[in-house]
Write a structure and sequence with these properties.
The chain is mainly alpha-helical and 232 residues long. It has two domains: 127 residues, HD-domain/PDEase-like (Cyclin A, domain 1, Orthogonal Bundle); 82 residues, Methane Monooxygenase Hydroxylase, Chain G, domain 1 (Up-down Bundle). Helix content is 61%, strand content 0%. The protein contains twelve helices and no strands. Helix 2 runs antiparallel to helix 3. The model has no long low-confidence stretch (mean pLDDT 91). Pfam families: HD. This is HD/PDEase domain. It comes from Phaffia rhodozyma.
């Protein structure tokens, strides 16, 4: 267990260094919340889950986010994580991380490359999501659910506002001029994406229960914003 913790500590150092300039919507604190939630989801399951894979994949899940990198691809993921997987501390825990497609290193990288909501929607439209391993991999489901849960509810509201500030997106505009705003408003993001991250799109029983509560909070928040904006 001590050796595992040294490996996790090494991963944390890499993530903090790589994401030092990310805005608050995708910073270390977001990653840490996703890590903690993913582990909670994993421990709630009856199915066997590799907790080390869950934790490392959750820590690495935003390293290749297309919003912050020039190119996001499996090659980029491997290049970013190359020093980590070849570090003596990691090698003591994962001596052959890529010996097969089911080895821990391979699974971690595959999870990182398949966590995002937009990636899943794109592959589903192409009929390429249901290829077997994604539907069977509970480690992937835990990391995906944790990332999506942090996009909704109280932190979802805060993160939407933080990202809007980072890209100079207005928080709210009148509905009749919404279509004239490049990228729309923060409130429009709730309608376009965040309200779609409901219990039906999550994959773990605990994640689904948490999503119901967080969706309710977001809808109450958006209703309050609309009410306040319509004062005569």
């Amino acid at each position: 267990m001590q050796a595992n913790q040294r490996c996790v500590d090494l991963a944390e150092e890499l993530v903090k260094r790589h994401m030092a300039d990310y805005d608050p919507s995708h910073d270390w604190y977001h990653v840490n919340r996703v890590r903690n939630t993913a582990l909670s989801l994993a421990r709630s399951l009856e199915e066997p889950v590799d907790l080390l894979v869950v934790e490392l994949a959750a820590l690495f899940h935003d390293l290749t986010d297309a919003k912050y990198t020039i190119q996001a691809s499996p090659t980029t993921t491997l290049s970013i994580l190359d020093d980590f997987f070849n570090h003596p501390i990691t090698r003591s825990i994962l001596p052959d991380p890529f010996i097969s497609s089911s080895s821990q290193g391979s699974v971690i990288c595959r999870i990182v490359d398949n966590t995002s909501w937009s990636k899943e929607q794109k592959l589903r439209k192409l009929g390429e999501w249901e290829d077997g391993w994604r539907e069977r991999c509970w480690e992937l489901k835990c990391v995906q659910d944790a990332d999506r849960l942090d996009a909704i509810g109280g932190f979802g509201i805060l993160r939407c506002a933080a990202y809007s500030a980072a890209v100079n997106r207005p928080l709210h505009v009148r509905s009749e001029i919404e279509h004239t705003i490049p990228g729309g408003s923060a409130i429009q993001q709730f309608h376009d994406r965040l309200f779609k991250i409901d219990e039906s799109s999550l994959k773990t029983p605990l994640g689904q229960r948490l999503a119901i509560k967080r969706q309710k909070l977001m809808r109450e928040f958006v209703d309050a914003v609309e009410e306040e904006s319509n004062i005569d």
